[in-house]
Each structure stands twice: as C-alpha cells, then as structure tokens.
C-alpha cells in the first residue's frame, strides 16, 4: 500500500485534493488506520483516479463525475451526458467567437481613429412594458413636443404616473427627415383607460437589444446613431424591428405638474445633461446559403 503522500506524488494530485475526494466519497482510501487516521492507497486505484481527472478535463462537475463513475450506469445515459457536455462546449465556443469578433472590431476602430470610441454598445434583454402611447406622423424628428404635452395632460387627467423614463418608438424602415412615423410612450404604474388618441397597451419585450448611451443635446445624437449602426454591421447583426429612444434625462418641455405625473425624476434643465439611450432590436445575420 501507498501512503497518501506517495500516492499524491505518483498521481500528481495534491494531498488536499485527495482528502476532498475522500470526504465526498469520490475516491475513498483503500485503508484508513483507525488509530492514526493515516490514509493508504493502492496502485489499483490509479485507473479510477485517472478517470476522475479525465472527466474533469472534459468539464464535468464532481457531482456529474460521481454519476459517470457508476459501473452500472446505462450506456444511453452516459451518451446523453456527453452530448449535453458537447452542446455546452459548442455554446461556449460561440460566445468566445463573438467576444473575439468584438475585440477585433474595437481594435480596428482604434487603428482607424487612433482613440477609443466615445460610444460603447451593449446587448440587453428588454422586458415588456405597460405604456400609455400616442402614435402619429410628425413633420420632423424634433417636433414631438406637442405629443409629449398631450401625454402629460392625459396622465394628469387620469391620475396616472409615469413609472419609468419615457421613450419614442420610430416605425419608419428607412431614414426620413420629414413626415416621421413615431410613437411617444410613457410607462405607467396603473392601467388608465385608452382614448381616441392615447393607447394603453403592453409593448413587446426584446431578447437582444443593441443599446448605446448618448450624453448631451439632441443635435449631436447622430454620432451615437452612427456608432451603433457601425457596431451592428461590424458584429454580424441585423436590425429586426423599430428602434427606440429612451429619455433617461430629458427636457421638461414646460410640462405642468411634472412631479404629479412622475416626470420630475427624469428632467434635466441643461441640454448638456440630457441622457438618451438608443436601442435597436437585433439578431445575428444568417450566413449566405450556397
């Protein structure tokens, strides 16, 4: 028999790890001296230890390894566990490939501009929201204020409060400077009644939303849009629905009773303090079929 120290050197597994395997029943010593508590192992236990190490290298947890060491385990269950591990590894590889692509995109951007981008794009999962919304066609992007004033009056008249920052949803599939199809929306804490102008409904959640933060006046927001569109293309995504602007800090547009309807927390007096999140729903581009 081998003392635990000798078995440790032979197997290149630490004594601490052997103690732990004993503790959890994964590899019990062949003998434990009842007086000294010294652990003793045999050469015949090396194949079992090597099996444990090999399965660890495949990424199985110790709990899964304990199951796989069962000599009576059906072959179908072993195949099933290996296939699940195979699927996990493929998924990890896809995540790492995506991360590698993002690093390469960032490197190219720095090489072209010789500086880090002002805008960082992140992917988010957006949950569904209950909103009060007004959809209309306005002469230009900047002429939404009348809709927001109309929304404020509606919320006040129905004793409703905004629960989160307001947002605009843009429905035109191509860029337009005139006659813009958009919807102004205020998330609400309750469900006030819909009217001829105001629709109270749930806007859909989005599994993958590419998002970027713009700080400052709206006149400069085009740079943030350009950065976001470049990121979407460079990272192999495609736009799959209307984009949104979420107004985390925005002007009050002379709304009355902004505290009453829940707007006050999101108001900024100086345009330099405006904070807007631009969001585009995206999905991975499908490779061209041969």
**Succession of helices and strands:** EHHEEHHHEEHEEEEHEEE
Question: Main sheet, how many strands, which sense, barrel?
Answer: 9 strands, antiparallel
Structural class comes to alpha+beta
Mean pLDDT: 89
Count of β-strands: 12
- Number of alpha- plus pi-helical segments: 7
Low-pLDDT sequence parts = none
Give a structural overview.
Strand 2 and strand 3 form a beta hairpin. Strands 4, 5, 6, 7, 8, 9, 10, 11 and 12 form a 9-stranded antiparallel β-sheet that branches. The relative contact order is 0.11. The longest helix is centred in the N-terminal third of the chain and has 39 residues. The protein has 7 helices and 12 strands. The chain folds into 3 domains: 67 residues, Multidrug-efflux Transporter Regulator, Chain: A, Domain 2 (Orthogonal Bundle), CATH 1.10.1660.10; 42 residues; 163 residues, Regulatory factor, effector binding domain (Multidrug-efflux Transporter 1 Regulator Bmrr, Chain A, Alpha-Beta Barrel). It starts with a strand and ends in a 6-residue tail after the last strand. The mean pLDDT is 89. By secondary structure, the protein is an alpha+beta fold.
């Amino acid at each position: 028999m081998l003392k635990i120290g000798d078995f440790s050197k032979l197997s290149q597994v630490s004594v601490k790890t052997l103690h732990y395997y004993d503790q959890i029943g994964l590899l019990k010593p062949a003998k434990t001296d009842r007086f000294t508590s010294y652990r003793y192992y045999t050469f015949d236990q090396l194949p079992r230890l090597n099996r444990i190490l090999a399965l660890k290298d495949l990424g199985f947890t110790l709990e899964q390894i304990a199951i796989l060491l069962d000599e009576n385990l059906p072959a179908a269950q072993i195949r099933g566990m290996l296939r699940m591990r195979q699927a996990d590894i493929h998924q990890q590889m896809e995540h790492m490939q995506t991360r590698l692509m993002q690093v390469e995109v960032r490197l190219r951007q720095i090489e072209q501009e010789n500086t880090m981008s002002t805008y960082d794009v992140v992917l988010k999962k957006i949950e569904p929201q209950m909103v009060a919304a007004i959809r209309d066609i306005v002469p230009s992007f900047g002429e939404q204020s009348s809709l927001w004033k109309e929304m404020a009056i509606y919320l006040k008249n129905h004793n409703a409060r905004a629960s989160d920052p307001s947002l605009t949803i843009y429905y035109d599939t191509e860029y337009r400077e005139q006659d813009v199809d958009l919807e102004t929306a205020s998330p609400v804490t309750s469900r006030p009644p819909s009217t001829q102008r105001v629709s109270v409904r749930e806007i859909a959640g989005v599994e993958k939303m590419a998002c970027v933060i713009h700080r400052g006046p709206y006149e400069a927001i085009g740079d943030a849009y350009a950065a976001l569109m470049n990121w979407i293309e460079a990272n192999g995504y495609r736009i799959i629905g209307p984009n949104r602007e979420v107004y985390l800090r925005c002007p009050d547009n002379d709304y009355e009773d902004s505290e009453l309807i829940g707007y006050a927390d999101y108001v900024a007096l100086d345009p330099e303090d405006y904070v807007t999140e631009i969001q585009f729903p995206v999905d991975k581009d499908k490779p061209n079929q041969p």
